[in-house]
Amino acid sequence: MKKITIAIDGFSSCGKSTMAKDLAREVGYIYIDSGAMYRAVTLYSIENGIFDRDVIDTERLKKEIKDIHISFRLNKETGRPDTYLNGVNVENKIRSMEVSSKVSPISTLDFVREAMVAQQQTMGNEKGIVMDGRDIGTTVFPDAELKIFVTATPEIRAQRRYDELKAKGQEASFDEILENVKQRDYIDQNREVSPLRKAEDALLLDNTDLSIEEQKKWLFEQFNKVSK
Ligand SMILES: Nc1ncnc2c1ncn2[C@@H]1O[C@H](COP(=O)(O)OP(=O)(O)O)[C@@H](O)[C@H]1O
Ligand SMILES: Nc1ccn([C@@H]2O[C@H](COP(=O)(O)OP(=O)(O)O)[C@@H](O)[C@H]2O)c(=O)n1
């Protein structure tokens, strides 16, 4: 079977990484969570005083972006990749509400996107990769053989994220999560560089009424059609 490139884009918290990880594991592909990379840049900015409340010191971040090294290593316990920022495991920290509230403004910056896209393209240069994000089918891998664009209602997405945080024992407010989901969708769709949009040749999946199992089955069917 030939190796292909799979791009999964869409709105926040709709299940992109869940289905991307499952597919990658079953077919033996690399999985890359591109959102985790933007989250890691955001965490670096918070921890290194690049934010003054909500204002970003873009000149400093521009100088320091070359010192921000992001990598993924398999966590043997979960069987999934954890995100590392300059050698430190930040998988839990990057999922906090503080990072969620600051990541979309960081992701509008052209020099941040350039640096991330270059790394993502290097990761995918041998194909056999599933990457999820916002601009994978449009900018990172415009020639991907399989492109999926996922959506679901904001309320369902907020509920899924709320349940996830609660299950991890983290404090969470449904209203705050819903507001964050809507705000990020707005910023992601309206930024100048690589805004979130469906690539013309992407398949649309609205998973509002689909279970994890059902969407997994659907994705496998699409994979099998294309990778033959
Ligand atoms: N179809 C689904 N039905 C219910 N919950 C789902 C579904 N798909 C994903 N989830 C759950 O929703 C949460 C967000 O999914 P995730 O894959 O992290 O979304 P994304 O990568 O799009 O932000 C996770 O807790 C996941 O287990
Ligand atoms: N390819 C990507 C991936 C994420 N992002 C940004 O990073 C944020 C976090 O992405 P994510 O995939 O972790 O978001 P969730 O939907 O998982 O909450 C998004 O809201 C975007 O602002 C991006 O701009 N481009």
Automatic annotation (TrEMBL):
Location in or out of the cell: Cytoplasm
Recorded catalytic activity of this chain's protein:
CMP + ATP = CDP + ADP; dCMP + ATP = dCDP + ADP
Q: Name one GO biological process term.
A: pyrimidine nucleotide metabolic process
Question: Keywords for this entry?
Answer: ATP-binding, Cytoplasm, Kinase, Nucleotide-binding, Transferase
Query: Which Gene Ontology cellular-component terms appear in the entry?
Result: cytosol
> What HAMAP family does this protein map onto?
Cytidyl_kinase_type1
Annotated PANTHER family? CYTIDYLATE KINASE, CYTIDYLATE KINASE/PANTOATE-BETA-ALANINE LIGASE
This protein is called Cytidylate kinase
- Organism this protein belongs to: Bacteroides caecimuris
**Gene name in the database record:** cmk
